[in-house]
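ok here's ABC transporter permease:
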Amino acid sequence: MSSTHATAPRAAAPERPPAQGERRRTPAKSRRRAGLRRAALHLTSFSVLMLIWWAVTSAGLVRPLYLPGPGAVWEAFVRANTDHPITEGSDRMVRGAQNHYLWEHLLASLRRIAIGVGLAIAIGIPAGLLMATTWLGTLLEPYLHFLRSLPPLAYIGLLMVWFGIGDTSKIWLLLLAAFPPIAMATISGVRSVKEDQVNAVRSLGASRRQALTSVVLPATLPEVLTGIRVATGFAWTTVVAAEIANGIPGIGGLAYLSGQKLQSPLVIACIIVIGVAAILIDLGLKSLEKVLVPWRGKA
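and the structure:
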């Protein structure tokens, strides 16, 4: 007669919790790997784009007047940043393009954009706060939407009549392009603040001004920063229109005059410089946003 002995199941050994150092290193490694993947993807896409561009222009599929090759664009970029003979074999030297180096054109446009966007920030944030918290919103908000819907070219001629063809009209144009997104972002941010939060602070004895500075403004800041980024992008798209008349020095004015003279390589060089500068500024604003509102996107 045989007997069977029931074996009690063994309890599974508890998993060892990761060490403190491992918990700290894992997110950092993940971020580094994600950053490397993004960089590799960007580099690959850029290389493929350059290869296609070179192949199309080298095969003569498009006339150089319409699409010059990368080499011609690079040569135009170098000439625009150096002194060179006015004609081949001439002893007379020319300074850059339109008697200014390309980086000087870029700095002139950046100065106009900085002043225009800076004024839009200084006016748009207080105006947005007033329209979101007082009866002025009912009165003025329709005009704000009207201004936002107008393309800059619609009133550039009028601004030239009012202020001339100098920098004043250009800065006004950039201000009018950047003001609506900043004001509307401020209005949206204020209106997204929960009334219970304000009432809770007021019930603790805070004044209206203290509630504004301690609750409303911090809650509005993420929307305002997004509005500033959008406004800066609008300013970049407007700078060429702003510099059509008497826009030298200016990267937009240089691109416009080069197009008038059928200097396609220099036009594309200006476009690339504008795009790279806009991307770098946007990355800087994103970094500033992470510093000022680190809690955004973590809830």
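+1. Residues 35-95 form one domain.
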